[in-house]
């Protein structure tokens, strides 16, 4: 266990911690909360959530912050490590009656200094579209609760779209909406589009186009969170039934599944290059799942209670050259390692050499973090010996080459060899992979990825404006593929390819039968990570973990949003700002 000391020291709330890259320090005067700074009585309330957006204003201070506390929703200018927080001047504040905000998401594509589009989900099932800069409320979706009466658990804009968004509910359903369409005055009627093991997707039957465009029924129990892959083509969902399910979002195909050790899964995130997914939940573990191999590659144990949030740190995740003679890219590529679609190919070219030869030209280290109901923050490194286990696995703490946190974000992770020896492209890249047959899926649940999709014009083509068209083709047919854009066609979703899927009935999985299988390996069958650090940083359960370039942001259920300066960044908050700001509660 990485936590230090015992007894009284273990119960002390930490205001700083040290990793190999240096000292992280809590900036007490950069704390955001309700204006009165009084701890919120969190009994029976929904988790505090935080959303960020950058509006690109000319002052260079374009970050905006939204958070919910109980029935209240706040919108502030976020000054981060630069200046002390001024809680007396929220840009917008809203107090709701009869319902509570549960989650929210900004549309980063349309955000400007004059206008932002913010989606807010509520405990009674509605979704509101507001503009906190203009202080406008433009639309309310599911207003009469005819679509779903249960709590909204997660809401996100569809990547690359100005109008489509996805909403998950505690009923286990997800709905695709278009902001341009109404929800109708009657309950929607549905028609089956595709069905597979423990999931079904329906379209909305209506004479005129209306919301929801699609209804997903996933697993059993609440759908607790979902996350889009970095390129927006895949969707990872975690549910109360303990399953991670990864879908190709556009073709509505199930890519792979994983089962928790026990209990529900509560949170999920993707690595910046789309190669790995991390989940957390009621088994107190973090679980690392390989997208390419569709299998669990590691578990991490450090929390003493449920894990509420997991997130990758793209600014500390690194790709490091070991032997310059083996470097297959240019010097410019090596010096300019950033995650992102523009630079993914340069890093991919270097990592692909790993798969074509026995040499090991680069060392990969992924940093991710987790927070939980035990009020602890854990940081983890996913390292070379776990990612490429060519050497005997060690169950001791993994030793890694951790980059300096102030260095540029690293490049994407490239490709892994598939089971047939061919390299498989991951969601961080521009071309989607052919679907590998997962050893965790029955053969009948995997459709032929190489077959062309049949056309379903007329079913919902008019209803899914700007919805995606990119289907998964064999590599031989890639000249047929177009740029990944969401347009007016739904023809890529195959009705014939779902014939086999329709034969798969929705059956309840017995946890005892999954343990020891590829769905849920036994603890001794996969490497066990220990956290780099594990620190108690709050009085109440933690609900937020966000990695920004110069800081880490956490929040607890009392309604305090805390900023932790990265090593070398603490000096940016001047002593003058510290002196002039009101004293606050250090969490």
TrEMBL record:
The keyword Cytoplasm applies. It is found in: Cytoplasm; Nucleus. Pfam families: WD40. Residues 476-489 have a biased composition (Basic residues). One of its GO terms (cellular component) is nucleus. Its main location: cytoplasm. InterPro entries: WD40/YVTN_repeat-like_dom_sf, WD40_repeat_dom_sf, WD40_rpt, WD_repeat_creC_regulators. WD repeats lie at residues 258-290. This is WD repeat-containing protein 20. SUPFAM superfamilies: WD40 repeat-like. Residues 437-453 have a biased composition (Polar residues). It comes from the Eukaryota. Interacts with USP12; promotes translocation of USP12/WDR20 to the plasma membrane. Component of the USP12/WDR20/WDR48 deubiquitinating complex. Interacts with USP46; contributes to the cytoplasmic localization of the USP46/WDR20 complex. Component of the USP12/DMWD/WDR48 deubiquitinating complex. Residues 417-426 have a biased composition (Low complexity). Residues 402-453, 475-495 are annotated as: Disordered.
